[in-house]
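User: My advisor, Dr. K., asked me to get a structural model of this assembly before our group meeting. I'm new to this, so sorry if the format is off. These are the inputs:
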Amino acid sequence: MTVLLTLYVLVWPLVVAGVLFVIGRAFYRELRAAKAEGRSII
Amino acid sequence: MLLFFGGSFYMSVRISKKKENADGYMTGGGNIGFGISAASMTATWIWASSMYASATSGYTYGISGPIHYGLWGALMILLIYPFGRRIRAVAPRAHTIAEVMFARHGRSSQLMLAGSNVLGSVISLTSNLIAGGALIDLLTPYTFTQGIIAIAAGVLLYTLWSGFRASVLTDFAQVLAMLGAVVVIIPVVFFAAGGPGLFESGAENLTPQQQDFFSSDAFFNQGAPYIAAVLAYAIGNQTIAQRLFAVREDLIKKTFVTATFGYGATIIGVGMLGVIALYAGVEPLGGDLNNLIPQMAATYLNPALLCLFFVMIIGSLSSTADSDLTALSSIVMTDVYGQNIAGKKRANPRTMVLIGRLTMVVAIAAALVFAGFKLNILDLLVFVGALWGALVFPVIASFYWGRVTNLAFSVAVVAGLAAFLPVRFSWVDLSGGLGLVSDVLSTVGVGIVLGLMAFGFFGKRVALVVGTVATLVAAPFAIGFLHTYPVLSGSLVAYAVSTIVCVGLTLLNKGTFDFALIKERTGDFDTEPGTKSLDDQPRQGEPVAARGEIS
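Assistant: The format is fine. Below is the predicted structure of the whole assembly, which you can bring to the meeting.
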């Protein structure tokens, strides 16, 4: 039970790290594309 | 705070234009990429209040508490994306949902939706200021009042000039800070509070219900009302709609799915601070649960991580507060000035931008005044969500069912609200026959909520089956029982009454609406030539069949 509860608490920061990576990578690609085309990202 | 708001201001200055475009000020041109839109959707959905409320839920209901706050909120983001795609398909260049309702029905529907959004956004702004003020009061030498003024000024500073464009760009930086902080802070607090051993040494601090992952207390008091409330939030909230109209149309699904994971993991993760506090036997300062998260941070984090925590909370409240400001400005620009004062043909884009900026100033001043009352954040959230429950069916039906009329929409919403208030606030005695009526309506409401969720993904037939089966299965357990949970009952009754009235009045109408008209009636304010005005066109309810436009 202790192990399960520990995993239950610690799994969320791992998922958050995954989402952070996905968003960060997409933003970087969009920023590069915008610079290459000479336009604002937004 | 200086660094945070200074950095946000610098970002907004980098993208600012001398003459801001009215459509850019409201939706960023409707062509935003996945990275920014996913970040913005995540940041907007995560507000400081939801972090506080999730931790409160964890502390109050035990290990399942954060799930009953965060999971349902996350699933709602996922469940509404099919509706989002439909809304975007019929109104690709709109700015607000209320504007679309004007095009679909007319003024009363538009003003009901706009009014509810103004109320919701002002409450949201207020609760975020309260959360920030409480944090500053607890962790710094400054007072609550000084804290809320500083935050209000900071958010206004970077949002005022460029509006929505500044809001979504700074959302990206705020998401990096927030999510980055969550990755670090939760494990650190967990191990500082005792790590895995805490679950053995602190088990005696929990009641059997708090130790139960399938706690009925947690479900009926927190999870179930929240399921009903957040569906309404997702449909009725202009901050979400604004991002829906801003993201590139083919990226809607990807954006919503990413935000689902981002929001869910972040909020459930922060809720774990409440669970840890419960196991550790922490008592909230002054008995105020809003103090719980700052108190945990102050107890277990070193000064550097405490700064990171501070950024996490300030980031979450700023990202939502700036979204509320831009939502409010869009509503006043489009729904008040653009369509009701000047008229779409005569609306001056430069005047619109000025009105948008003035709206932001007035809104933040109002939120500052309300924040002084220090209301309970969780109660506010559930109340607004339930209030919006009366709007959900009429709004969704208006995008799919051509026979829904302005009268059906308006009367349904008013009837839903009229039924909601006495149940939610126990103004009537529900122990007798009225309780039975309330339970029957609540049971129907269960079927409607689940049916609507199924409808987005699987269509009408599956939705009707799911709704009917859910109502029949719930009936034996719910009737005679649900009225003892007024928060849940009020919300479900609002869904049921508004749906029944809307369907009943709609069936009386034999005409049907041509959805293609919405695309013509909504659109950019900055490109005047060729734009059709609402004032030039027949209103909903006119016999479109006579124009050969039956859809």
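One thing worth pointing out at the meeting: The mean pLDDT of chain A is 94.

User: Perfect, thanks a lot.
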